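tool_log.txt
---
The assistant was asked to compare two proteins side by side. It first ran the structure predictor on the initial sequence, then on the second. Raw inputs and outputs are pasted verbatim so the downstream comparison step can read them without reformatting.
(1)
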Amino acid sequence: MSTILSIENLRKFYDGGFEALKGVSLDIAEGEILALLGPNGAGKTTLISTVCGITTPSSGRVTVGGHDIQSDFRAARQMIGLVPQEIALEPFEKVMNTVRFSRGLFGHRRDDARMEEILRKLSLWEKRNAAIRELSGGMKRRVLIAKALAHEPRVLFLDEPTAGVDVELRKDMWDIVAELKRAGVTIILTTHYIEEAEAIADRVGVINNGELLLVQDKASLMAQMGQKQIEVMLVERIDAIPDALSSYELALNGAGDSLIYTYDVHGERTGITALLNDVAQAGLTLRDVSTRQSSLEEIFVSLVSEDAA
């Protein structure tokens, strides 16, 4: 796939010397979904704002579809849709007019059929003639999404699009994301719901303190950095791990009826067979055994913790 968004050594300084972005470089392919993860204040929103032309970079270069965001701003910005964190809408304007205006702002002709399609997908069609001030917070969030899609962007930024909204909207949002991906739209999202990033993203980027710690294919990231755990469930509870099992660095769960063993999936030997034999030799009776892979959230927390150390 060809690169649609290219970020080269992007830096952003503010008065007082604070550096919000520290040489961020990133290429994003057309049609991919990139999840950008990071704690509050990591630089996620600053990066998005800079690419979208809301914030002026201190140095570096960004191109969208080959258009420089500074020297060819109009063409670059026309390719971008943005769903911001904050809800900023004209309270007395009607929903339909709000979305139509956003389309016209980018030089597109009126297309009522397209507007109806977007509003129906976002469950806003019945509210098309309602004033923005009459809508709930979740409905206003839907209007922001409709505005971002109105001019048919090729790159869509979703900055915490489902934070604090209802479950129904979250489901609608991810259904739309999946459909846009099928249509070849590139999507960059930030989210605190890491399980959503894990479910829909092609690649994951982790940013902290203005630095991009890594950008990697989600599956390979989890395979390389994740660990697996085996939980050995016991028939009877125990108060402590037997001395005979001390070499395995096991953990005993709070209820005292399960042993947790963590192992490297890439190790030459997992030690599981020997562990199970030694558990039996220690006089413990197995009730069941299960395994699980480290989640993306655990990997993310580990990366950010290492960066802060």
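(2)
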Amino acid sequence: MQPIISIQDLSKVYASGLKALDGIDLDIREGEIFALLGPNGAGKTTLISIVCGIVTASAGRVLAGGHDIASDYRRARRLIGLVPQELTTDAFETVWATTNFSRGLYGLKPDPAHIERVLRDLSLWEKRDSRMMTLSGGMKRRVLIAKALAHEPRILFLDEPTAGVDVELRRDMWRLVRSLRDTGVTVILTTHYIEEAEEMADRVGVIRKGRIILVEEKAELMRKLGKKQMTLNLQEPLAALPEALARHDLTLKPGGQDLVYTYDTKTPDTEGERTGITGLLADLAAAGIRFRDIQTSQSSLEEIFVDLVKERA
């Protein structure tokens, strides 16, 4: 099946010489939720801006629903809704007026029933006659989502949608995103919060320094990111790891005083245990190795990105 978005050898170099994107190739499937992860400055917003026709690419091609975003802009852009990071709205307009106006920008006939559904889904119906200047930051972000949905797009971009928003909005947003996916809308979410990708996405892509370094099904990526570490502080230092412990993923720290065990919380081992800790402790006891203390830790998002970059280097 043809992807709803096809990005081919896409690059962007700004006048300053900054290379924001470097040969991006990416296909996004119709009806999926795709999370694009990356640290600040990785190129997420630039990529979205090019696909949405806001920024011109230096090289490459983007197709949206089979329409070239450059040569067939109107048809391509008609398919896309964008919720930007910035809260940019007309302060003096009402919620209803600014949402309805967004629909008209695409040459569509008024559809009050659709606008009402969108506003109700986003808990904005009671605010429909309020001027934008009177709304809180969270309410303004809801309006941005309503504006993006006003013309019934088949593709919805959410650029860092939960940055600085309250828990209630986040919950409403995810409920709405799931309902849109169920109707066939493709949702592309950019974020640097791994938990959002785990909560929402079907597939995950990682971008770093303008390059896509990984695209995988969420379940597989979460399996890889499910690794934790346990550090055992030994009573007596070891000169080397005993052969009896070879089956475990162990690292002996310099000095021989600490053993570091890396384990996967997602996938059972051959004995059906998810962490392998029980087997490790039994083998340590059998080898006569005793420890004073145990500490556990899980990689931070920054560490995970570093590991992914090393894997793809």
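---
observation on (2): Residues 5-223 form a domain with the Rossmann fold fold (CATH 3.40.50.300). The chain has two domains: 5-223, 226-300.
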